[in-house]
Amino acid sequence: MDELLRVKYLWQGGNLVELENAKVHILTPTFFWGTNVFEGIRGYWNKEKGELYLFRIDDHFQRLTESAKMMRIDLPYPPEQFFQYARDLITRNGFREDIHMVQVVYLDGIGHPRWFATSPTNMFLAAFPRGRTFDVENGVKATISSWKRTADNVVPPRIKCGSNYQNCRLAGLQAMLDGYDAVIMLNELGKVSEGTGYCIFMVRKNKLVTPPCTADLLESITSDTVIRICRDLLDLEVEQRDVDRTELYVAEEVFLCGSLAEITPVVSMDKIPIGMGYPGELTKKIQNAYFRITRGMDKRYASWTTPVYGNTER
Ligand code: PMP
User: Fold this and answer.
1) Range of the domain at 151
2) Going along 211-291, which residue ranges are E strands?
3) What mean pLDDT is reported for the chain?
4) Are residues 145 and 188 in the same domain?
5) Distance from the CA of 266 to the center of ligand 1, in angstroms?
6) Residue 285 catalytic?
7) Closest residue (by CA) to atom 9 of ligand 1?
8) 194 in contact with ligand 1, CB cutoff 6 A
9) How crowded is residue 47: how many other Cβ atoms within 10 Å of its Cβ?
10) For residues 250, 253, 258 and 264, what is the CA-based torsion angle, rounded to 10 degrees?
11) Is pLDDT above 60 for 77?
């Protein structure tokens, strides 16, 4: 909550507005049915350079555009302008620390709510100071949920839409009440899908494996980053294939990945220790590379880290 108190301005509908003055029409179908599309993007503060880097922002904008297309929602502003809006927002709030920024496109119609409305749309961006989500050093205890991940032909996880997260909420709250830190859902076919806000990798028989993008999951930008780190820096190809629940129990290493989850080792699954019950060596290597890249410390990946305060031509 302290973080919220430090948010002074939002970007909404073309303007920077004070948080308490931001308004949404109460009859919007977004309020009733959760019709929106959104992104969650991390910004990393680099103290030495006095710079805040937004990570893979163009990929997030692209995914938002695709989510809107699948939802048949028009984007109210051109994606080429999104970075400028983000920069205006962050510089106005003056954040010089790690942040999380959300970008939400929603229906903001006046008149009676219609669930099939596709316009008028509006957009807001909000940024918050944000530390780690999980204990990335010691790892987390995870469980497999009895809730299934919704299928692509039911409520497609590929669309990053608020209402899709009700499925995640059911699974996440249950796992928390049961004493776990994280949760993985299986899909309709009983294969490993993803977590409530992160994807999953395992090391099995010395191979790094992750479920394919057809396993009813969000196409994760962090997963893609992991695949690229492994290929470019560790000379390791990631296998993308169906994964059984029991494979996770006997995996040498398991980790979660996502913009918020970053690279988080899983040390037990359903109370069965993963490997020796400590974060694995490959996980730590990938995590180390990820933390360097995201903070703008690895020049080879400069195109993924967009400076907010410096002068960047876009
Ligand atoms: N799955 C779900 C359901 C998510 O909400 C997220 C977070 N956006 C992810 C996976 C990870 O995606 P990304 O790496 O792009 O943040």
Assistant:
1) 140-294
2) 239-240, 253-258, 262-269, 272-273
3) 95
4) yes
5) 17
6) no
7) 198
8) yes
9) 9
10) 120
11) yes
- As a whole number, mean pLDDT of residues 304-313 equals 85
pLDDT at 116: 85
191, pLDDT greater than 70: yes
Tell which residue, 129, 149, 253, 240, has the closest CA to residue 197: 149
What mean pLDDT is predicted for residues 66-70? Answer: 97
Residue in 8, 160, 271, 284 annotated catalytic: 160
- Write the residue with the smallest CA distance to atom 3 of ligand 1: 197
Same-domain pairing of 188 and 289: yes
Q: What is the mean predicted confidence (pLDDT) over 60-86? A: 97
Does residue 199's CB lie within 6 angstroms of at least one atom of ligand 1?
Answer: yes
CA-165 nearest atom, ligand 1:
3
* Distance of CA 195 from the midpoint of ligand 1 (Å): 8
Give the DSSP letter of residue 34: -
User: What CATH number is attached to the domain comprising 281?
Assistant: 3.20.10.10
Task: Give nearest CA residue, ligand 1 atom 7.
Answer: 197
Task: Give residue for tokens 């710079």.
Answer: 51
Residue 196 CA, closest ligand 1 atom number: 3
- 277 pLDDT band, cuts 50/70/90, is very high
> What are phi and psi for residue 42, nearest 5 degrees?
-95, 145
Give the pLDDT confidence score for residue 1 in this predicted structure. 54
pLDDT 10s digits, 99-146: 999 999 999 876 566 788 888 899 999 999 999 999 999 999 999 999
166 C-alpha to center of ligand 1: Å? 14
Question: Quick check: 126 and 3 in contact, CB under 8 A?
Answer: no
Select from 129, 162, 181 the last residue of a domain: 129
Q: Is the pTM of this model over 0.90?
A: yes
Ligand 1 centre from 101 Cα, in Å?
A: 14
